[in-house]
Amino acid sequence: MSTVQIGFARAAARLMARDLRIALRRSGDSLLPLGFFLVVTTLFPLALDPELSLLRDIAPAALWVGALLSSLLALDLLFRDDGQDGTLEQLALCGQPFAGLLLAKTAVHWLLTGLPLVLVAPLAGIALGAPYGAMPGILAALLLGTVALSLIGAVGAGLTMSLKHNGSLLALLVLPLAVPVLIFGARATALAIAGEDLSAPLYLLGAIVVLAATLVPWALAAAVRIGLE
Amino acid sequence: MAWVWFHRFGSPPHFYRLATRLGPWFGWSALLLCLAGLIGGLVLAPADYQQGDGFRIIYVHAPSAWLSLMVYVVMASSAAVGLIWRMNVAHAVAASCAPIGASFTAVALLTGMLWGRPMWGTYWEWDPRLTSELLLLFLYLGYMGLRNSIDDLGRADRASGLLAIVGVVNVPIIHYSVIWWNSLHQAPSVMKFGRPTMPASMLLPLLAMLAGFTCYFVALLLTRARAEVLRRERSAHWIAAALAAPAGSGTGTGAGSAGEVPA
Amino acid sequence: MMKFLAMGGYALYVWPSYALTVLAVILNILWARSALRTARQEALRRLAAARPASTMSYEVGT
Questions:
Q1: Interface mutation vs chain B, best among A155, A172, A220, most B CBs within 10 Å
Q2: Distance CA B24, CA C60 (A)
């Protein structure tokens, strides 16, 4: 049986288009993490006396805990369906670089679950009392942070994909690696809200993203292969 | 030539016999070194001019912290060996490391808290060293949790091995955190390049404790690794002979080796 | 002797630390030995199950 070999770029593009089509068909799945993020961040002003200055102090924490929890929730979507119906096996066997294809899948996953978070964050920030001037900083930090969380979380998802009821184990696995993102991201957001220069934590976040983007594909491919055995 | 040695070491019956023979040596050495360290540290060493007798916690805190890091590196390295060379013995070693490492990470954190309270005025601070050591505990727990939740032993070995390798990035962060950031925790005075900055009367017992704890870990590791190797072994021939052997049943520690009778 | 136990006033912190460490050391020894014992018994059981009709020259009891 001969197959027509296409280049990796075309293969990845087709895979991403397919994933997007499927996700948009079942938009409920992708909107769930976003809804969760909004609920979590609005719970804080409801639970606290909505004294604006106090809210502003906890805004970074609320935004980032919300982002982390919602990305954990979203990770379930990444490999579940494709792992069960055999698509992942086909991807592993099709001759294209597996690590690259998985990176493409993770990218689509971020587009569907991380990017909406970033776009909605200014609203959540305003609800938490952040000044308008802080918005660019908040956006930048969350942009880098959600990418990092998607990459790191993907490895955890790959390791646990064949397990049932893996939610809490996934959180336990992802947490140690995600905490630096949380720390630097919250620090950057706090500096943005205070109106100070936030380049230091942003650079560190950027460094984490670069490191993750370099190392995660290989770890991810190894993890998924183990999971497919 | 080294490869022959390497692959013989990876052969389960050879490893089992070697572990059985070597265990007691490490166990007794651990006992002697720790006794010397404790006498030197608790009795002979003078009180610190700043911390008084409170500094003596270092003789249990520093070795525990050392174990927590070293054991993780051993775990991640043997996991890597197991993944690359598909060596069951290496996976057995990695699996054996986790409970030991997790226990002593907890001990390091708790003794650190007990030391921090009188010296810094607080049990806990979310500073880089303490936070990353806590994350190390989570890594150990995650490793053990992942292992337990996968039924197939081979798959459990490989998945948890990958996790161990991914998590090893935390180890240099823990060690260098006190240098890179302004931390509440003091900078390293022993494990650094250049001469240590502690007087000999305090340093020598500490080195003895560090060496003693290391020997203790090796003895424990050999015991657990023997158990793990037995779990992974399918072919019966060498097991029957090894388990029937009357000698060398020592489980590798000095304390109370009289309890273990050959099955 | 009392001076030794008092640890210059830090006894409340020093001795619990040592006790905790000793406890961890002992518990780990017991845990490891129990793991080895269990593994041995399992292995012998697997052996016995694999050769039920043999002369059991390896019968060493459990």
A1: A172
A2: 23
